[in-house]
Amino acid sequence: MRFLRESYIVFRRQLRMNLRNPAWVLIGAFQPVLYLLLFGPLLKPLIGALGVENEYTFFVPGMLVQLGLFGAFFAGFGLIAEWRDGVVEAERVTPASRTALLMGRLWRDLLQLFVQALILVGLGYLLGMRAPLRGIVLGIVLTLLAGGACAAASNALALTTKSEDVMAPVINVVMMPVLLLSGILLPMSLGPSWLQTASDYMPVKHMVNAVRNSFLGDFTVDKVLWGSLWTVALFVLAVWWGTRTFRKENA
């Protein structure tokens, strides 16, 4: 109970800060909406190769994962500002659990991601996407876990670098190969064999495949299992890293 109370106090403060300046929330939701409206129609000629009835049934799951990963990756920038203002140090001198200091922030990020995911799925349905309810639920759960992993890693990176100038290029270096090799925008089967082989070593590709297959209602394939395992593993590892960073004496 004490852990939940401490996490809630941090969550409430973070949520209030977001509500005072909701611009970043709106911007984060607006980008995948633009992808749906401007990039989605380009996939229409590939419907036969994709094996789906509507291009958005393929595209929306990829956009969900992109929203979870790339949106959450920027969560640490706010933590750098808090560290600079002395907020983090003030929290650390309290007896609050270091895990609670991280989880309270993750709850804020996951709530924001959940609202954005609902908007994205709703728009996808308006554009013709069709997916079973349980597939959507599983896809959103995997998206939240992936986003939680990235938010935790972003917070850990923020307290490690303590500089936006260092953190920004690091994120850009990570994001580019992830975006190109994960199959978020286009299926990797369209690329040459060497590119497909390289993408097999990208955990995010398996996460994207898991969400896509869940939206197709296919829960029996290994893609869903491996993607789910990768998602859970990365979430646990990132939360451990984030908690460990908060516990450091020089944080």
From TrEMBL:
Transmembrane intervals: 21-43, 63-83, 110-129, 135-158, 170-190, 224-243
Location of this chain's protein in the cell: Cell membrane; Membrane
Gene Ontology biological process terms from the UniProt entry: response to antibiotic
Protein name, entry field: Transport permease protein
Disulfide bond as UniProt keyword: no
Any one GO molecular-function label of the UniProt entry: ABC-type transporter activity
Record GO cellular component, one term: ATP-binding cassette (ABC) transporter complex
Record keywords: Antibiotic resistance, Cell membrane, Membrane, Transmembrane, Transmembrane helix, Transport
PROSITE patterns (UniProt xref): ABC_TM2 (PS51012)
A Pfam entry, by short name: ABC2_membrane
Membrane topology of the entry: Multi-pass membrane protein
Family that this chain belongs to: Belongs to the ABC-2 integral membrane protein family.
Species this chain originates from: Pilimelia terevasa
Main location: membrane
PANTHER family xref list: NODULATION PROTEIN J
Segments forming domain ABC transmembrane type-2: 23-249
